[in-house]
Amino acid sequence: MRAAAQSTLAASTLIIGITAVGLIRVIFHLRAIQANLAATTDATQAVADLTSTVPDRLTSVNASLKPVRDFCDTV
Questions:
Q1: Domain chopping of the chain, boundaries
Q2: How much is the pTM?
Q3: What is the pLDDT of residues 38-51, one digit of tens each?
Q4: What would the mean pLDDT of 45-66 be, rounded to a whole number?
Q5: How far apart are the first and last CA of the chain?
Q6: SS3 assignment, position 75
Q7: What is the rounded CA–CA span in Å between residue 55 and residue 62?
Q8: Is the Cα torsion angle 66, 71, 74, 75 positive or negative in sign?
């Protein structure tokens, strides 16, 4: 009976050890993916900022150029 218990404990330890190593590898892979996603998100935000619409301050420029536009319409 003692040999059966020892072999069961050895098999259980081996299975638990392999599972633990697998889970630790998954943790490292998920951390790498998280870092890549953070970099991708930052890059996407930078592109969005660079390609955003014209700021509101240009409405005052358009208002200042309205007389020029009106003159061009008459020509």
A1: 2-74
A2: 0.57
A3: 999 999 999 888 88
A4: 78
A5: 108
A6: coil
A7: 12
A8: negative
Backbone angles phi, psi at 38, to 5 degrees: -65, -40
Instruction: Return d(Cα 27, Cα 31) in angstroms, integer.
Output: 6
Tokens of 25: 């590898």
Written as six digits, the tokens of 62 are: 């358009």
**Widest CA span in the chain:** 108
Polymer length in residues for the chain: 75
**Which segments of the chain does DSSP mark as H helices, in order?**
2-50, 58-64, 66-74
Here the tokens at position 11 are 């098999």
| HSE-up (13 A, CA, CB side) for residue 60 | 3
3-state secondary structure of 43: helix
